[in-house]
Amino acid sequence: MGTKIYGIGACQSIDNSGETIVVAGMDVSKCRILSDEHANEEGELPMFRIIGGITMAKAVNTEAECEDEYQRRCWKSAGVPFIYTEGELADDSGHPDALSAAALIKFCAGRPDVPLKIGLSVEGGTLERSGTDKKTLSRTVATGFALTVKPANPKCILFLKNDLAKSDKTQVPPARYYEALKKSQSKTSLIENKQLMLLYHMDRLNKSISDYMGAFTSLKCHNCGKAVRLFKSTSNMPNGCATCGNAFSMSDIWRALNK
């Protein structure tokens, strides 16, 4: 068993980028990955930056919704709706980055004299923004959380849940932790990724593909405006307009299927 952690994965307060996540609008059902710092700007996460897994993620909107002492501790710290999360590091398997992260978390825990603090930052995508300045992330999907020394929201702090001898091995924290302190974490890690949004919506089709077999609908071409008869069967889907040859996108076909 690896080192267990818990904390505030996301919080409904203004972060360093001026954005606010609406906790009630965040889908955490596919939250699986615990990573070391953030993904790159394309949203890709190198395998060895994955240092553990998420064992629990839930929205806590009021103090009355707290189920145990861990969640109550987080509520007292946040004071606003938040995403409570628990995770386990892969340090018991000898993962070098997980060992370093576990050692660093323990080193910082309960040490007011240590300037290096570990927090959490949500990884995922934004599905919908609202507000006049579009700074409110009203609908989001979380795929995991990153351990970071520069969380976009300072309220997103991390706590140590257990203390295993396996994780007590002396490890030198990677230099990137200290380098990160010199940089400003001003951007949210919730990326604007159209592919992620499409996959998210396709996973929630109103009907299954088998429900559409033998039926048909129409798909209007953006180029010539002609409607094409689209059979709702994987073997009969046209990949382009029969009139002008304009290629249909996956988004066009998905919208037609989900009418």
SSE string, helices as H and strands as E = EEEEEHEHEEEHEHHEEH
- Tally of extended strands? 12
Radius of gyration using CA atoms only: 22 Å
What is the mean predicted local confidence, pLDDT? 77
Explain how this protein is built:
With 259 residues, the chain is of the alpha/beta class. It folds into 2 domains: 4-200, no CATH class; 205-257, no CATH class. 20% of the residues lie in helices and 29% in strands. The protein is built from 6 helices and 12 strands. It has helices at residues 69-78, 96-108, 175-181, 194-202, 209-212, 250-257; strands at residues 4-11, 20-21, 26-27, 33-36, 50-60, 82-89, 119-130, 136-148, 158-160, 190-191, 216-220, 227-231. The strands form 2 sheets. Strands 1, 2, 3, 4, 5, 6, 7, 8, 9 and 10 form a 10-stranded mixed β-sheet that branches. Strands 11-12 form a two-stranded antiparallel ribbon. The longest helix is centred in the middle third of the chain and has 13 residues, at 96-108. The protein is elongated, with a radius of gyration of 22 Å. Residues 163-171 have low confidence and may be disordered.
Write the layout of secondary structure elements.
Blueprint: E1 4-11, E2 20-21, E3 26-27, E4 33-36, E5 50-60, H1 69-78, E6 82-89, H2 96-108, E7 119-130, E8 136-148, E9 158-160, H3 175-181, E10 190-191, H4 194-202, H5 209-212, E11 216-220, E12 227-231, H6 250-257
Parallel strand pairs: 2-8, 3-8, 4-8, 7-10
Antiparallel strand pairs: 1-6, 1-9, 4-5, 5-6, 7-8, 11-12
